[in-house]
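Hi support team,

I'm opening this ticket because the web form for multi-chain structure prediction keeps timing out on my end. I have pasted the exact lines I submitted so you can reproduce it. The total is 648 residues across two entries, so I didn't expect it to be a heavy job. Is there a limit I'm missing, or should I split the entries? Thanks in advance, R.K.
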Amino acid sequence: MGGPLLEVRELRTEFPTHRGPIRAVDGVSLRVARGETLALVGESGCGKSVTALSIMRLVRRPGRVVGGEIVFDGEELRRKPRARMQEIRGGRIAMVFQDPLSTLNPAFPVGNQIGETLRVHGVARGKEAQERSIALLEAMGIAGARERLRSYPHELSGGMRQRVMIAIAVSCEPELLIADEPTTALDVTLQAQIMDLLGRVKEERGLAIMLITHDFGIVSQFSDRAAVMYAGQIVEQGPVQELLEEPLHPYAQGLLRCVPRLGRPEVRISPIEGSVPDLAALPPGCRFAPRCPEAMDRCGREMPGEYEPAPGRVVRCYLHEGVGEEAARG
Amino acid sequence: MSPVGALVQIEDLAKHFPAGRGRVVHAVDGVALEVTRGETLGLVGESGCGKTTLGRLICRLAEPTRGRVVFDGVDAVGLRGGELRALRRRMQMIFQDPFASLNPHKTVEQIVGLPLWVRGERSKAERRERVRELLGLVGLDPSQSRRFPHQFSGGQRQRIGIARALACEPELVVADEPVASLDVSIQAQILEIMRQLQERLRLTSVFISHDISVVSHVSQRIAVMYLGKVVEMGPGQAVIEGARHPYTRALLAAVPRIGRAERGAQPLLSGDPPSAVEVPSGCRFHTRCYLRQAPECRRVEPELAATEGGHFAACHLA
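Hello R.K., no limit was hit. The queue was backed up. Here is the completed structure from your submission:
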């Protein structure tokens, strides 16, 4: 105990292409404390999902983690033997994905799939596994849980399937749950139910959550700290209210100005000009410099480090260099 | 043609689809509304509420089961052949998926120029000039008009779709989830373009979206749909700040907002919406309604009734 539950330092993941390597994750450092929710927020292709998959060691070949450390509860995961990693995956770190239809096996009733997880991780088998599965589904707010065990995924609604996925994820009492866009495929009233459920599960079980999302509303309502990603890097991280009320990085500022605010017609949206750089041909300096309204000469030439202008707030931008002291990372 | 008044009037419009074994999907089930010239009407609701079908009915891309669609004084239902084609020229659609709605074999110039070519009123050189003008209007570089759709990003492709829709200067544009598949920064770009076009061209449009924040940003009036019916309609701000229907209130409460307030509030709705095959009796929302219900909620279907200031709600308790 004492240290963070998860600490990632300078993580780098690449995918080779004929145009050279795509640096999908490039120097990501983050921490998740026990019982804390860290939101990883950003737009498509910014590397938030690849960061999660890298932590889980689930990056598909030919992609691979080429650098950095992933320390979970004091143990380095990158060099763990495959069998040990399999125990951790699903046992101590669980994952919920966006689309439950593609992660549940369509050929088996959901009861089998919950039971399998319990059996593989040696938690329970046979009759006991069945009783546990029922209790889990009930805890997820599924009515008629005993009968539901025999349902196939296609017989369940989208919200119900996501409840089953969460049941499977928490079945082995993990310490960390990585939720990758868990409600993106759902309607907003269902999203509210699933996020409420995740919040309760987290409280009851003392889970830490790494929540991957593109929705700043979700970030605001459900996380303690947030990290904003752009083109493979975390450009800013900090306590969620401070980050949302007074973002420091020009990209975070711009992104927040793009969000239409409900019931606040006085807040005009203003788009960020330009588009995301090609990850196979990145600019030499700051990745946001070509679109940044405050870019200086230096920004286009040299990559800024991560600075800590206020306690707990880390930002990768020269505007905040030397405001506090350089963060003691990397 | 009067500059004010309704461009589109819909009366008791319904579209039912056969669902096999004699069952029927009540996709749109008795909708009455008007789209006023120069306004943007936002149509919001969750999956399966019938908003897309309603949009298609307005553009006569689907044949209604019953009811009337009156476009600029002309009853559009039952029009055939040349009359229908003449009507369709005056309305255009913008689609959700900019990958599926652009022909990958055609250049941007061909795609945007096609409606002009079909109309046959301009020479090739005139069409080319008009395409360049349209591309400029939506913020694309006219010098890229010889490129193919795959050479553009999702946001740029959606701009191409908008340029195509505007090519023949339609009087009505129906935009069906035009920003649903876009990232937030790109979504903001497209929303800004749509706002500018509304102002510059005084477009009349129907903006369909599942996202009430987006709808409220671009629409003067909002209609909220649930299970094939409009349950609430009114000026944007009145609907957002003074929602009358319990479904609208639940929808608004479910949107995660940026800010401290309401953190950790309980969701108002539980479960999934009922199927459009077996529509509940009385008020369609009564099976999920969290208000203390009156006996008529289960028996009598509430009418969309005026409250004040052009604000309507279909609820016995509102």
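A quick check on our side: The two ends of chain B are 37 Å apart (CA to CA). Let us know if the file doesn't open in your viewer.
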